[in-house]
Write a structure and sequence with these properties.
InterPro entries: Epimerase_deHydtase (IPR001509), NAD(P)-bd_dom_sf (IPR036291), NAD(P)-dependent_oxidoreduct (IPR051783). The protein folds into two domains: 185 residues, NAD(P)-binding Rossmann-like Domain (Rossmann fold); 82 residues. By secondary structure, the chain is α/β, with parallel strands linked by helices. 40% of the residues lie in helices and 20% in strands.
Length: 293
């Protein structure tokens, strides 16, 4: 299968590209910069130059492929306005890919986050949030999954807030960065809130499985660790960086504060049983032991 991918050079995207190529697929990746283009070429993928907001280019990449994987997102949380622009660019790109694949029966795998459900671990059947700073992404994904009724084999891989590799990545990576900058390994609230996690290489396998065999309109959870207490995460970071560990106000983390403070464990039992996904790489707490002072 020839696969068109957006976001193919990030922490997750780069290992998805490697997983697809290793499994015998070919890949064309969207590249906004010379650096991204060089990374895709070095990995063995073809390159389509353009930004996520270049909808004509994005649509063309999808039209020439046997399937598509969408992973790109600006991740600019510096202000509500910047985040809104990133969400708008993503929505336009996903719509362009979907339009290109209507009536073809080809697979289109997109990405979202696992939802937070009060009092229990979230399931693949739980709805995505319709309020909050990134709710616009849920609207985009819901529309994309609805293309199953128009001849597109859509599926969504829901990622936990921490996708990690080699001691870095995701929300835990942000806690590490804040700890380096402030000299304190902080956690919001009392730290008992739980964050799910997955190693990037395990997540990449699930993206491939969804592309190859997921039913139209389906959602899957790329969750290896159902939920680590945030204070346990902060404790490992503090020990590795040799800084004190303590509670800090959620406002410390700006627009991410309310999300950082939320309890959001998630289950992948259905995903594992149905698609045969079996995470094998280190857990988050094990991986954080690779942090260097």
């Amino acid at each position: 299968m020839h696969v068109f991918i957006t976001g193919g050079t990030g922490l997750i995207g780069s290992v998805v590209v490697a997983e697809l190529l290793r499994s015998g697929h070919t890949v064309t990746g969207l590249a906004r910069s010379d650096r991204s283009a060089a990374a895709l070429e070095a990995a063995g993928a073809d390159v389509l130059r353009g930004a996520l907001g270049d909808v004509t280019t994005v649509r063309g990449g999808a039209e020439r492929a046997d399937g598509a994987v969408h992973l790109a997102f600006g991740n600019d949380f510096s202000s509500p306005e910047a985040l809104a622009r990133d969400i708008a660019d993503e929505s336009a790109a996903v719509a362009a890919i979907g339009d290109a694949l209507v009536g073809t029966g080809k697979p289109f795998v997109s990405v979202s986050g696992t939802p937070a459900i009060p009092g229990r671990a979230s399931l693949e059947t739980d709805p995505l949030p319709t309020v909050g700073p990134v709710a616009g992404r849920s609207v985009t994904l819901t529309s994309m999954l609805g293309l199953a009724d128009r001849g597109v084999r859509t599926s969504a891989v829901r990622l936990p807030r921490t996708v990690h590799a080699d001691g870095a990545g995701g929300f835990a990576g942000l806690l590490t960065r804040f700890a380096r900058e402030s000299g304190v390994s902080g956690y919001p609230g009392d730290g008992t809130q739980r964050w799910p996690a997955v190693h990037a290489r395990d997540a990449a396998v699930l993206f491939r499985l969804a592309l190859e065999s997921a039913p139209a309109g389906s959602s899957w959870h790329a969750v290896a660790d159902e939920g680590d207490a945030v204070r346990d995460i902060a404790a490992v970071i503090g020990r590795r960086l040799q800084v004190p560990v303590q509670a800090v106000p959620p406002e410390t983390y700006g627009t991410l504060g309310p999300i950082f403070a939320a309890d959001q464990p998630s289950s992948s039992a259905y995903t594992r049983a149905t698609l045969g996904w079996n995470p094998t790489h280190p857990s988050l707490l094990e991986d954080l032991e690779l942090i260097r002072p």
